[in-house]
Each structure stands twice: as C-alpha cells, then as structure tokens.
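User: Okay, second chain of the day. Same drill as before: sequence in, structure tokens out.
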Amino acid sequence: MSCASCSSSEGLPMGCKNNGTCGTDSCNKLTVFDWLSNMQLPNGQKLFDVVEVRFKNSRKAFYRKNELQNLNIGDIVATETQSGHDIGQVTLTGELVRFQMRKKKVKENGEEVLKIYRKASQKDIDVWQQARDREKIIQKRAREMAIFLNLEMKISDVEFQGDGSKATFYYTAEKRVDFRQLIKDMAQAFSIRIDMRQVGLRQEASRLGGIGSCGRELCCSTWLTDFRSVSTSAARYQQLSLNPQKLSGQCGKLKCCLNYELDSYRNALKAFPKTETKLQTSKGVGVCQKIDIFKGYMWYAYKGEWMNWHLLTTDQVKQIIELNNAKKTVLSLEDFSQEIKVGAPEKVFENVVGQDSLNRFDRPKQTINKNKTRSRKNNNRKKNA
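Assistant: Same drill. Structure tokens below.
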C-alpha cells in the first residue's frame, strides 16, 4: 500500500502502474513468489480458503475468506480485529499460503486466523488514507511528549488501524520504561486508543527500511524474516578487520550478511592447521602472520624478523609440523617457500572498439606545398612592380 491511489483490478495493482514493483514505501516488501499460480488443482480439490494480508511495512497475517469471496493478489480488503476493522492488501493466495502457515507455525484452524469482512470500498480506503496521513504528525507530537516526561525511549513508527480508531506506537528502549502517563496524555490529545509495542533495533530497521553499504535495500526489510544472532567471531573467521564502523549496519548491530558465507569459511578452515602452532627450524621459530583461506596459503615470519614473510601452502605447513612432532630438524622456511611462485597474471587488453582510430572522424590537416606558395608570392610581387 505505497501510493495514495493504489488499488487493484483483477489482481493487478493500479494507480502507480508499476505492477507491484513500486519503490515508495516498498510495495514488494517481504513478498513471496507464487510459483504454484500456473498449476491447476486436482479434480474435487477446493481452493485454500486462507489468504495472506500485508499491512503497513512488513506486518503480515493470515485471514480466512468466505466461499463467495473471490480474492486476488493486490486486492484491498477489510479484515477483522478485536474492535473495529483494519485495511490491508492481499499478498498471497492459494496453496502456497498453506506452506507459509506451516513455516511460521500457524495452525489452519487456530484462533489467530481471523476472517475477512469484505473487499474495501472507496469510503474504507478514504478513511484509511486519512488515518495514514496523520501518522507523521502524531509521531512527532508523541516524541515531544516523551521528551517532556523524560522517558528514555524512541518512538520509531506509528501505525493506524484501518478505521482510524486505534494507533500502535512502536518504540525502542534499552531499559524498562514506565509510559503509563504517556498513554494517558496521548489518548487525551489524539482521542484514539493507544497500543505500545517495544521492538528491537533490528526490527526497527526492518520496519523503516533503507539502503545498505552494498547499495541495495536492507535485507531485513526486503526478504529476511528471521534475525539470527551475529557475533564478532563471524568476522574473525572471514579475516575481516574488527572495525565497528564497517561491520555495523544501520541498526547499530553487526550486519546480518556476516553470516551468509560463514559456513563456507568454516569448511575451508578445516583443511588449515592451527595458526597458533609454531614451526621449529634450525634458523629460527616461524610464527603465522596471515592466511589466505580459499587459496590455501599461509605466511610465516621468524621471531625477530617480522618484516620478512615466507609463503607456504597448507600441505607444506603440515609436513613441517609432522617433522617437528617426529623430532626431525628442518633447516629453514626458505627451502619450502621457494617452490611457490605467486604473481598477478598479465592483463591483456583487447581492442573492443575495432581497428579504427578514435580520431577517424576528424578532418585531416591539408599539407601545404612550399613551392606553390613561393611561386604565388613571386607572381604577386611582379604584378605589383
């Protein structure tokens, strides 16, 4: 529900004419591709009567429809709530909803599955849009009230119910906050029912959205649904510098993408000997300085000669360790490092433009014949004489 004029017609979002790929307020936030849409149901099989409805930002819920209701993806519907009704957009229908309910551990006949009243009329959409237009103003006033009461909390977002009778305030706080007086003041000032919900920093970033350091939209606001804990050991496994400015996301926590390739690094590190193991040679003791995980290289330096690094492979390091365990002497690390030659391959640039020169369209300079110019000058002199 990104645009003010966003509506639906036969399952195709209208208004912005972008067919569900609008960039404002993320029309396609946490969407699921319906890969069963082109498949027909077996004979006698009824269409699953539960649909997935998305509300503001990434909040989704499952609702049951009647047999007479024909709902498609993109329809605006009025759904059941504890008091009044809410307005949302259908984001998924059919058998894939059953898989989503199993994934999120929602029972098909559970009490949390409410019902859909009807397709939203134009009056419902107008009331809902007027309530959404008030969210920014009320959020600003609520922050001013919290500051006046000296409450250590941040009100990050406000979400109105579809009928405009209730507002949910999402806030973040490090400690427990007593906001009873704040609720009384807001209920008196706004004349609505107030619901306060505390969210974490990662959940706040997923609700607000944004652009990450990679240049793409935040994973938590587009497709990531579970927030796993990220520790600094993930950065150590990947040989990343422990710089909090580079490892932290917009939420202030460690980036979730540090866990994406962590398993690959762990599997690759199984073939490496421990970096704490020192190599005993006749020339000195070798200490590991750096490793290249995917190429299988390890750099060692003698104690006292920290500027001179010697490149070894993991097999050579294991061979030296086995000799040390067998109490056999190794002359030096140079005997092993000389066998490895690592160099950048030569870059061969091809002429992708062709054999034509870049100045082929320039006008060629005319060659001046000196003899002709001399003869012209002599003729002019004779005429003048």
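Confidence is low (pLDDT under 50) at residues 1-15, 17-26.

User: Thanks, on to the next one.
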